[in-house]
């Protein structure tokens, strides 16, 4: 019978047409088919149930992760809230032995102990998989598990001795932040506020000394600490306490990051007690600039790569290349920050944003913060860029802002600076117990304390000696001792140390840096007030008031004879280079970038008349008084400053050409216009004789310092 015949016969007749043996096997075949169909159906249902269970488990894990994220952020917010309330209590009770940063660290330590020892382990680790065929670690890994692909990211290297003690508490992992959070979110407002709130008058008065301490001092401190720590590392190797590699470049890197001073505690007490303004300016200026120098210096040390097999040996070519990288990064970051500030000044000047203070404040905030990210994206250092952006914004853009925006920007960055700084110090206390890669070495820690003390002394006292040779106001021994005492380490050193903790050497550096910050903030910060009293340093000084001028600070000389030319001359506080810059800034940059300064039609050549009229703000013509910053930077109070105002020439401590009909005296006092009074107030001239008809500042080119 053909195969198709059974179908034509129908089911009953087909069954009767089949051979007897097939009839006997038919129930068995039908049973197997039914069981196979049932098995297939049950396996499909099981697969669907398994997939549903996996989706449900994934959703629960996501919810649990979200909950832990919320708890970790809530923990830090509660820490900051508790810190603020305690700060109020300390200020109310006038307690000065512990600063707010030290208080934040104590609260962080308490919470860290609770999280470390008071919370149970909530997750475990699966078995480790060996990839012996690969010679490097991948940053991202795709794993095929039964046809499903899972993505894994690299968290870091684990030493073989700690493979079984990897932290199994998810909560501790959540409170361990990515180091980039510190650099991209927390550091920019801190550094920008330092530049934006800079007291330019006192800063520029001590500019030479500040630059010497910040650049030469930081470099000297870096190399002294690095070499001393290299000796300590050699000692550790001899006594058998060094379990991994620690190179000379690692020691120099540690010297660079630990040279970043952050005397926030001392400066806060100085500000509260109104300590001597020159000492405040020296400490504040050094701490602001040496943070920038330290981060660029550490980047240059990392970039040091000698040719040949030994990548840690000294190579002159690699050394000079690192020096070039240092100069290139610093100058590029400085330029980027200044250019961003100039662009913001131009935008706020030539638009009507001042009519909308909210938009003006928002634009100012975004432009300032983007400076940091732009510099980092271009391979420069955002810390340097945002610092000089803040200084530029305060010098130019601030003049263009509305009254509301001036108040808002000051308060906004002050609040962000306060919260970010206390957040970092709270995290420092937390990290002592939650960070999983600590390497405690007593020999290295003790050696580091000795090294930073010697490094600080080796650049404060010698540099002060050489600086006093050219300063009229000497840096006294009590100032030098206070600067030596005030070399605290803080947020910048911590952020640089935590940025890379992959190797054994970097982990030891991070642990040591954390302990150094604890000691300096608690012990040195708490001893600031007694030290001020013991060193007999002035307190109760108004920081916005200049020291009383000498009797011959400004003299109006009515003649140009030999007696006038040979009058008393005092040493300039400001270098000739800065005087030239000040003249250029007052006559050209201020009128171009702001609504203040003399009209460009009076300072630019006649053939630039059209350009001068386009760039000069209408407010300059409309207002009798040019706009002026709250913190005036007219700082030249002594020396050869010649003012040519219309037909009258006035020279401070120098010769003068007399011009008739410009000065009228009534009972020993002269009648002045409003613009004359503004100029005299800005220059600190008091009742000196000046008449006006267009501004021109003339500075001598020789240096009398």
UniProtKB/TrEMBL annotation:
Residues 648-665 have a biased composition (Polar residues). Residues 83-534 form the Cation/H+ exchanger transmembrane domain. GO terms for cellular component: plasma membrane; recycling endosome membrane. The keyword Lipid metabolism does not apply. GO terms for biological process: regulation of intracellular pH; sodium ion import across plasma membrane. Residues 548-568, 648-695 are annotated as: Disordered. InterPro entries: Cation/H_exchanger_CPA1 (IPR018422), Cation/H_exchanger_TM (IPR006153), NaH_exchanger (IPR004709), NHE-6/7/9 (IPR002090). It is a multi-pass membrane protein. GO terms for molecular function: potassium:proton antiporter activity; sodium:proton antiporter activity. Keywords: Antiport, Cell membrane, Endosome, Ion transport, Membrane, Signal, Sodium, Sodium transport, Transmembrane, Transmembrane helix, Transport. It comes from the Eukaryota. Residues 667-684 have a biased composition (Basic and acidic residues). NCBIfam families: b_cpa1 (TIGR00840). Belongs to the monovalent cation:proton antiporter 1 (CPA1) transporter (TC 2.A.36) family. This is Sodium/hydrogen exchanger.
């Amino acid at each position: 019978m053909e195969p198709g015949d059974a179908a034509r016969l129908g089911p009953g007749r087909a069954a009767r047409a089949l051979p007897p043996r097939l009839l006997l096997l038919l129930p068995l075949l039908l049973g197997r088919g039914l069981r196979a169909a049932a098995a297939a159906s049950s396996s499909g249902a099981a697969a669907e149930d398994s997939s549903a269970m996996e989706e449900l488990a994934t959703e629960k894990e996501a919810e649990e992760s979200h909950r832990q994220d919320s708890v970790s952020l809530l923990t830090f917010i509660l820490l900051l809230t508790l810190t603020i309330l305690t700060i109020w209590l300390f200020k109310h009770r006038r307690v000065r032995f512990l600063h707010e940063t030290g208080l934040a660290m104590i609260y962080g330590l308490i919470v860290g102990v609770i999280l470390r020892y008071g919370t149970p382990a909530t997750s475990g680790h699966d078995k480790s998989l060996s990839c012996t065929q690969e010679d490097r670690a991948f940053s991202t890994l795709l794993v095929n598990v039964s046809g499903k692909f899972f993505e894994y990211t690299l968290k870091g290297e684990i030493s073989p001795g700690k493979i079984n003690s990897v932290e199994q508490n998810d909560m501790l992992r959540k409170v361990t932040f990515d180091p980039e959070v510190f650099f991209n979110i927390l550091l920019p407002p801190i550094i920008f506020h330092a530049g934006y709130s800079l007291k330019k008058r006192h800063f520029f008065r001590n500019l030479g000394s500040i630059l010497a301490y910040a650049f030469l001092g930081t470099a000297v401190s870096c190399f002294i600490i690095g070499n001393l720590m290299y000796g300590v590392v050699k000692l550790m190797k001899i006594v058998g306490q060094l379990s991994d590699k620690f190179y000379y470049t690692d020691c120099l890197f540690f010297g660079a990051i630990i040279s970043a001073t952050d005397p926030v505690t001392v400066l806060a007490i100085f500000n509260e007690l109104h300590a001597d303004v020159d000492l405040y300016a020296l400490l504040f200026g050094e701490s602001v600039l040496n943070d920038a120098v330290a981060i660029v210096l550490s980047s240059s040390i990392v970039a040091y790569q000698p040719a040949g097999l030994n990548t840690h040996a000294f190579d002159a070519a690699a050394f000079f290349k690192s020096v070039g990288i240092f100069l290139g990064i610093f100058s590029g970051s400085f330029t980027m920050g200044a250019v961003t500030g100039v662009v913001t000044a131009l935008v706020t000047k030539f638009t009507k944003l001042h009519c909308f203070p909210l938009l003006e404040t928002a634009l100012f905030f975004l432009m300032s913060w983007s400076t940091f990210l732009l510099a980092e994206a271009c391979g420069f250092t955002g810390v340097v860029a945002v610092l000089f952006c803040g200084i530029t914004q305060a010098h130019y853009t601030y003049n263009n802002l509305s009254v509301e925006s001036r108040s808002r920007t000051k308060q906004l960055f002050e609040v962000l600076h306060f919260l970010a700084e206390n957040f970092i110090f709270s995290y420092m206390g937390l990290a002592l117990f939650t960070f999983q890669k600590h390497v405690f070495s007593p020999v290295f820690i003790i050696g580091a304390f000795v090294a930073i003390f010697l490094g600080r002394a080796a650049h404060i006292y010698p540099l002060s000696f050489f600086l006093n040779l050219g300063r009229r106001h000497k840096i006294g021994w009590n100032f030098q001792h206070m600067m030596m005492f005030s070399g605290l380490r803080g947020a910048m050193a911590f952020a640089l140390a935590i940025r890379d903790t992959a190797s054994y050497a970097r982990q030891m550096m991070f642990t040591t840096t954390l302990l150094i910050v604890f000691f300096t903030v608690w012990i040195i910060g708490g001893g600031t007030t007694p030290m001020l009293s013991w060193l007999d340093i002035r307190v109760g000084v108004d920081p916005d008031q200049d020291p009383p001028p000498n009797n011959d600070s400004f003299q109006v000389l009515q003649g140009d004879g030999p007696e006038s030319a040979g009058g008393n001359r005092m040493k300039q506080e400001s270098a000739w280079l800065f005087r030239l810059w000040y003249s250029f800034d007052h006559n050209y940059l201020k009128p171009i970038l702001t609504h203040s300064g003399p009209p460009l039609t009076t300072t630019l050549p006649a053939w630039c008349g059209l350009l001068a009229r386009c760039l000069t703000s209408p407010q300059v013509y409309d207002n009798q008084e040019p706009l002026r910053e709250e913190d005036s930077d007219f700082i030249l109070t002594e020396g050869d400053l010649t003012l040519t105002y219309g037909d009258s020439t006035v020279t401070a401590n120098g010769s003068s050409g007399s011009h008739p009909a410009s000065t009228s005296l009534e009972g020993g006092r002269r009648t002045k216009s409003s613009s004359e009074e503004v100029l005299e107030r800005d220059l600190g001239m008091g009742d000196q004789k000046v008449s006006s008809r267009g501004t021109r500042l003339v500075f001598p080119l020789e240096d009398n310092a």
